[in-house]
Amino acid sequence: MIVAEQKPLSEIKEIIAPYKKILILGCGTCMKTCFAGGEDEVAVLASALRLACKKDGKEIEIEEFTIERQCEDEFIQESAPAVSRNEGVLSLACGAGVQALARGFARTPVMPGVNTTFIGVLEKQGIFTEECSGCGDCRLDIFGGICPVTRCAKKLLNGPCGGSQNGKCEINPETDCAWQLIIDRLKALGQMHSLRRYIPPKNWRTSLSGGPRKLVREDHMI
Amino acid sequence: MNMNAQSRLQEILSKGDFAVTAECGPPRGANPEVVRKKGELLKGYVDAVNVTDNQTAIVRMSSIAACSHLLQMGLEPVMQMVTRDRNRIALQSDIMGAYSLGIKNILCLSGDHQSFGSQPDALNVFDIDSMNLIRTVQTMREQGKDMSGFELNGPPRMFIGAAANPFADPFEYRVIRLAKKIDAGADFIQTQCIYNMDRFKEWMKMARDEGLSEKVHILGGVTPMKSAGMARFMNNKVAGMDVPEPLIKRMAGVPKEKAIEEGLKICLETIAELREIEGVHGVHIMAIEWEEIVGQIVEASGLTPRP
Which numeric CATH code is attached to A2-118? Predict the structure, then answer.
């Protein structure tokens, strides 16, 4: 899923400062799952903002609404009546949702209420970790299902750097060394021979480095 | 300049002489005098001077420029190059440029992560890794081609170095990594500072058992300690460093004013031991911002005069 975290209240206050009537629009898929912008977070943020604005002596009307996904037009249309009643929209979707919304409503300013951080998994309750950078050329088959492009701080493809100690990454003792994980896993799978293999330079053309990407599925086009 | 002549370091190592190199960190500024001063201190004591490339991710004068200053003084530089700051286009271009200036040795590294440095907000590159860089330099030299396969007009023929850290984890992988670096094209290896001699010897034995010490020249890294505090700091705070407790205690056991002397003694003992280890072909002295001590270490080790 896409993981994000809500912006600090002070920043959100600044972002919405020019408006007196705003819609806080939640996103009910990824953002709900990572507790950044589902229905519950919309309600909590709306109350906090109302309180904060009242304390500052600022008049504001806040409407709350959540749709299933802000990255799909079909759902975006459901929010059209609410959007039209307000001067601006504070979107609690990921960056893709914010942009899809902006594309859908040409005359209404759409502002981000969360910082989109990564594609990740729920490691355990309350902890999300980044696992994929969407490079467009997945080679998890040779790395034992652990991605060094995303999880090694130096994107090393040919083994751990000299800073791997006790299974941890040199840049943060809380972070696992991806290469230690890869080696442990390949050992368990009996695939240690993979480690001797020279991995040539990565082709980054399929990644964001090659420019904004578009996926065309002609078989699904109408 | 004879473009095809081998580097002095390569000559010494291939003759089977015990090589001596030292490190030189360029200044945080554009003052060439700093490099020249360090060069003067090292002249006559070392076979080559290894010039760091924005080490610890702190912005400094470029390695290429500092190498060029040393060359003008008659010193032979080893240019460090990290993959942190340049993509493959810039790396290849700088390798050609460096060689055109007369730089004949390169040490291929990934580089310290920028989060350790003075500008942690920077974007890193890591387009290729150190292994890929080694292979790239080798392909340029052996096939005369760049990474796209384009035939170069005057290919750089660099003597290729790589780093190895016998003290990092996972230990059993460290020799596999060494083997990969040799396969990729490394001619010589510089190790992380050696304090844990037992572990180093074990690593060397594994390398010998795999026949690796015959395929590559291993230079053992040493750094003289100035105090017990420094020993502790390196052990606890510097990633991939291993200073065993008895050594820290030994440093702490002497009066403060004797600490430098004790550190030097340890360093000399390490060098003496290294010279006895089969497969170790030289020593690399990393006296960080303490270049004036290098001559003393080399002399006291009986490694002068240099060839």
Answer: 3.40.50.2300
